[in-house]
Design brief:
Layout lengths: L5 H8 L3 H27 L3 H17 L3 H16 L5 H21 L3
Helix pairs in contact: 2-3, 2-5, 3-4, 4-5
């Protein structure tokens, strides 16, 4: 699975390279806060906030056609919904690793 599915990204963004650049820039700015919000929610066992914050980052990643990272966020979203924090550290590590791949992709992106 590619880090970002270029064909899907172009379809989502209407082949608008400027829009793609703007969305990538927005993600780079918003990512640290989104991850921090998830970590805080996990530490305080605020399950609704885990769900909401994971859902938010999942949506951003889906919009960027970053399916592996979006799937990692979804596992955390489900944990919040089911109020089950078993394995949450591994799920969070996976999300961060996948998001780092997205960030590297953005840094090297030809758009």
């Amino acid at each position: 699975m590619p880090v970002v599915n270029i064909d899907e990204l172009n379809e989502i963004m209407g082949n608008d390279a400027e829009l793609i650049q703007e969305c990538f820039a927005d993600f780079l700015v918003e990512y640290p806060g989104m991850i921090k919000a998830i970590k805080t929610a996990i530490e305080t066992e605020q399950f609704v906030e885990i769900d909401n914050n994971a859902h938010k980052i999942k949506g951003s990643l889906k919009y960027l056609a970053a399916d592996a990272a979006a799937n990692a966020a979804y596992t955390i979203e489900k944990a919040g919904q089911s109020q089950d924090l078993e394995g949450i550290d591994e799920k969070l590590a996976m999300l961060e690793a996948e998001c780092q791949k997205v960030i590297l992709f953005i840094d090297e992106c030809p758009f």
